[in-house]
Every structure is written in C-alpha cells, then in structure tokens.
Design a protein that fits this description.
Bound molecules: adenosine-5'-triphosphate, magnesium ion
Shape: globular
Radius of gyration: 18 Å
C-alpha cells in the first residue's frame, strides 16, 4: 500500500463485474480520481445502482478486483465500515457487539462503558439487539465504528428507513462523535438534505460507467447546519441541476 500526504487518494480507472450466467459484464466505475483531506466529511451521492457501495467496498479493502489504486496517509490506516443494516450479532448483547472487534488485551475495551453512555445505550448494554429499536441498533453500530478509533470511517446509508426525528437524533450523535474524535469520513446517502447537513464536501457519481460528475465544498458554517432555511438554500445551490 503506497503512502500519500492526504488522508487518502483513490484512483479507480475502472471496475467491472464479470459476466455471470445471462448477465453480461458490467463496467460500473471509471476514471475516478480523488484526494481526500484528513478529517474531512465527504458525502457520496448518486442514483441507485451507480456504484456508490462498490466504491466504498474498494476503499474498505473488501474488493481488490479493480484497475487502479487506493493510497493512505499511513501505511497501517485503520478503516471502519458502518453498513446500512446494523449487522449486530443477535446472540450477543449490545455491549458484547461493540466489544466484538477488540481483542482481549485491547486498551480500547476500557472505553466501551463511556461510549455506551455517550450514545445513550448504557441502560440497554445487556439487551439483545432484537429487543431494542432499529434506532438503538444504529446507535450501537455507530459506537462499534467509533470505538475502533479509525483513520477512515466508511458509512453506507447508515440512517436510511428511520423516521425523521430518529434520523435527526442519530445525525446529531454522529456530529458529536466526530467532533470528539475527528476522523476522515466517507458517507453515502440519497438524502440531499442529510448530505448538506453533514458533509464538508459532496461528490456526485453518475453515468452508465459512473464517474464523479460534481465535487462541491459545502458552504455552511457548523452553526448553520441545524438551520432548515440555510440547509434548504445550500441544498438548492448544490443540487440545482438534478
Ligand atoms: N457482486 C456483484 N456482482 C455483479 N454485479 C454487482 C455486484 N455488486 C453490485 N453489482 C452491480 O454494480 C452496480 C452498482 O452497484 P452498487 O451496489 O455499488 O450501487 P449503489 O450506487 O450502491 O446503489 P444503491 O444506491 O441502490 O445502494 C449495479 O448495477 C449492481 O447491480
Ligand atoms: Mg449502495
């Protein structure tokens, strides 16, 4: 893995899923070149099926079958991935699920009780995932991502299919966790208001073989991000043509 001075550099010259049965080969991504600054909050948007999750999987190191290279600032850059579904093990408690990625002698284990408190799950620590709401499962999934203290945090539509107030609570929690421990975030969403509220930079992917068609710095101060009027105006500016 090559080293770079930004948090990461992504170069996906092409990504093609091979032909299977009656489906012909599918070139999903092409000519994607990106440099991402440390501690930036990058939001990735684009139509369904354009390749957002595919790009995240490549950056996460889950898919190395592509033409190009992903380079990190540090050679042992820690990556954490928070998926659309919370992916908690049903036979482990909430606390055990958060402890799961940490080895027995990992010093980060000592931080789990404070993390449970911070995400509002202290009372539910001993509950099994199916006994708590989807919102709480998503809180656990955020806790599991942040407890790893990652250099790069990848999030794929983590707040989709929640009611508005719950999604809004989780966005606030994410901002709080990010402020306490800044990291470089890549966040996929279809929700344009969410993109503007959270992101410092918005990338839009589009096309048959998708590439980056828009790369925009979000011009909102942090105190303006909870102002619906300012969010609406910035959303209209950024997504004027879509
Ligand atoms: N393992 C796979 N094998 C073959 N084709 C795949 C595979 N995974 C994804 N694809 C195809 O690649 C394209 C991009 O998929 P991807 O899941 O990355 O899109 P997406 O932008 O994340 O969509 P959504 O917004 O619906 O989540 C789609 O056409 C999809 O069918
Ligand atoms: Mg996806």
């Amino acid at each position: 893995m090559a080293q770079v001075s930004t948090a990461l550099e992504v170069e996906v010259l092409s990504k093609t899923f091979p032909a299977v049965a009656k489906r012909s080969a599918n070139r999903v991504l092409e000519n994607i070149k990106l440099a991402i600054e440390p501690e930036s909050f990058v939001v990735l948007t684009g139509p369904s099926g354009c390749g957002k999750s595919t790009l995240l999987n490549i950056i996460a190191g889950l898919d190395d079958d592509f033409d190009g290279e992903v380079r990190f600032q540090s050679l042992d850059a820690r990556r954490a991935y928070i998926f659309q579904s919370p992916r908690l093990l049903p036979w482990r408690t909430i606390e055990e699920n958060i402890l799961l990625p940490l080895k027995d002698d990992d010093p980060r284990r000592a931080k789990v009780p404070a993390m449970l408190e911070r995400v509002g799950l202290a009372e539910a620590a001993d509950a099994y995932p199916e006994r708590v709401s989807l919102g709480m499962q998503r809180r656990a999934s955020l806790a599991r991502g942040f407890i790893l203290e990652p250099d790069i945090l990848l999030m794929d539509e983590p707040f989709v299919s929640l009611d508005d107030p719950t999604a809004q609570d989780l966005r606030k929690l994410l901002i709080d966790l990010y402020k306490r421990r800044p990291t470089t975030i890549l966040f996929v969403t279809h929700d344009r208001s969410e993109a503007v509220m959270l992101g410092t930079r918005i990338l839009r992917l589009d096309g048959g073989s998708a590439t980056i068609v828009q790369d925009e710095v979000v011009q909102l101060r942090s105190q303006d991000r909870s102002d619906p009027g300012k969010v609406r105006a910035e959303r209209a500016r950024i997504f004027a043509d879509v």
